[in-house]
Write a structure and sequence with these properties.
Elements (H helix, E strand, L loop, with lengths): L1 E4 L4 H12 L5 E4 L10 H4 L9 E3 L6 E2 L1 H11 L10 H18 L5 H9 L5 H25 L14 H16 L7 H11 L2 H4 L14
Parallel strand pairs: 1-2
Antiparallel strand pairs: 1-3, 3-4
Length: about 220
C-alpha cells in the first residue's frame, strides 16, 4: 500500500496504527504540511481536498479521510478485528472514535489554524489556547464514557484494541504535541499508556517518523 502522510499528522498516525495492527506493509510519502506541500499540484492530483492522509491499495482509487480508511481496512482485512461483533458495540466504538475524528481533531488541523491567523488575525498564543481547549474537551468527553459505561475494559471497549483506541491515542499524543494538560482522566491515561506500550502503536508515533525533530 502507498500512504501519503506527515510525521505530525494525527490523522495519518491513526492510519499507521491500523496498518500496523493488521500487519499490512506500506510505503509512506511525506507531504510537509508545515511547508504547504499539500497545496502542490502533484498532491492535489492525489487528494483535491489537500488534506492527509491518502491511501492507495493496489490499483486505486485513492482512499481519503482517516475513519473511512480504517473502515476500509476493517472490511478488506478483517483480522484482527478493529470493531466489535455486535451492532451496539460497533456503534459505541464508532461514537468514541467520532469524538476525536469528527468533533475535536478537525478544529485544530493546519488549515483551521491558518485561517484563524490569516483571516481572523488571531495571535499565536490565542490559537494555541484554542487548540488546547478542543483537545481537552474531546478527551474529557471520552473519559466520561469510559468511566461510566460497563463496556470499558482493558481498552476502550472490552479487552481488544479497536478503532476507538486508535483515535484516543492519536488525541492524547496530540495533547502532548500542543501542550494540553487535561486533568482527572484516569481511564484515558491508562488506556493510552497501555496502547503505546505495544509496538503497533509505538512504531506509528509521530515522533518516531522520518522528519520528526530529534528527541533528547
Amino acid at each position: 500500500m502507498q500512504l501519503w502522510g506527515f510525521w505530525r499528522s494525527l490523522a495519518t498516525f491513526r492510519v499507521r496504527i491500523a496498518l500496523n495492527l493488521k500487519g499490512i506493509s506500506f510505503e509512506e510519502t511525506s507531504i510537509d504540511l508545515i511547508a504547504g506541500v499539500q497545496r502542490s499540484e502533484s498532491y492535489r492530483a492525489v487528494n483535491p481536498q489537500m488534506v492527509l492522509p491518502a491511501l492507495v491499495d493496489g490499483e486505486g482509487p485513492v482512499l481519503f479521510q482517516s475513519l473511512a480508511i480504517l473502515e476500509y481496512l476493517e472490511e478488506t482485512r478483517p483480522e484482527p478485528p478493529l470493531l466489535p461483533t455486535d451492532a451496539r458495540g460497533r456503534a459505541r466504538v464508532r461514537g468514541l472514535a467520532a469524538i476525536v475524528a469528527a468533533d475535536s481533531h478537525p478544529l485544530i488541523v493546519p488549515r483551521v489554524r491558518e485561517y484563524l491567523d490569516a483571516e481572523l488575525g488571531i495571535a499565536e498564543e490565542a490559537r494555541a489556547r484554542w487548540c488546547r481547549h478542543w483537545i481537552e474537551a474531546g478527551l474529557t468527553a471520552i473519559e466520561s464514557h469510559l468511566a461510566t459505561e460497563p463496556e470499558t475494559g482493558r481498552y476502550c471497549h472490552g479487552d481488544t484494541a479497536t478503532i476507538a483506541d486508535i483515535c484516543l491515542v492519536s488525541l492524547t499524543v496530540g495533547a502532548n504535541l500542543f501542550g494540553a494538560r487535561p486533568e482527572n482522566l484516569p481511564h484515558v491515561t491508562r488506556i493510552a499508556e497501555s496502547c503505546l506500550a505495544e509496538a503497533a502503536f509505538a512504531d506509528a508515533h509521530p515522533l518516531r517518523q522520518a522528519g520528526a525533530p530529534p528527541q533528547a
